[in-house]
Specification:
Blueprint (H helix, E strand, L loop, with lengths): L5 E4 L5 H11 L3 H13 L3 H9 L11 E5 L5 E10 L20 H5 L5 E9 L8 H15 L5 E6 L3 H9 L3 E7 L11 E6 L5
Parallel strand pairs: 4-5
Antiparallel strand pairs: 1-2, 2-3, 3-4, 5-7, 6-7
Helix pairs in contact: 1-3, 2-3
Amino acid sequence: MRETIRIERAASGDGRFIAEMVAVASDGIATIEWQQQADAAGVSALDIGAQNYAGEDGDYSYRNCLIARDENGESVGMILSFALTEKNRSVDAHPPPYRDDEIFAPYMYLEAVDSWYICALAVVPGYRGRDIGKLLLERAMAEGERAGFSNASLIAVANKSRLIDWYRSQGFEVTRSAPIVEHPLIDAHGDALLMETAPRA
């Protein structure tokens, strides 16, 4: 019998699970950012991520997350999405080339203004291949449509071809790319890719 998966709004208590999923989905990018704060506070990077996502304010809050739970109430997947507009875009974004210390620059450059941004989507390994990611993505994109956005966007990495093919099957297409700045904590190489559902002409 097929299991029952519930998609529901995240709560503050989901902060650590969200951080764990974001760490996976971001290929280590989020961990680098958290590590800078963790070193100063004497805690782990994941502790900082959990604290951030348990918070009420900003784009990186549990309020912008949906959680997939199984029939036992266990969290098995997560999606973080929000409106990306002129108000919250990265003000110092610029095209390549990038210096070795400009780790976040490619992702800033690939932001698609006036889109519903799928910032992170991840499913627990044992639950992959069961359409949970699709359910989460559909719910998040429906939220974007209700908020008035016709375009959804996300950033993928070129070396994960199966994931890119999956996003294409969900209506996304590659519209821009930028080279990833190599770093020991980044589990990706090659190009970062902006993918959109309804890019501007």
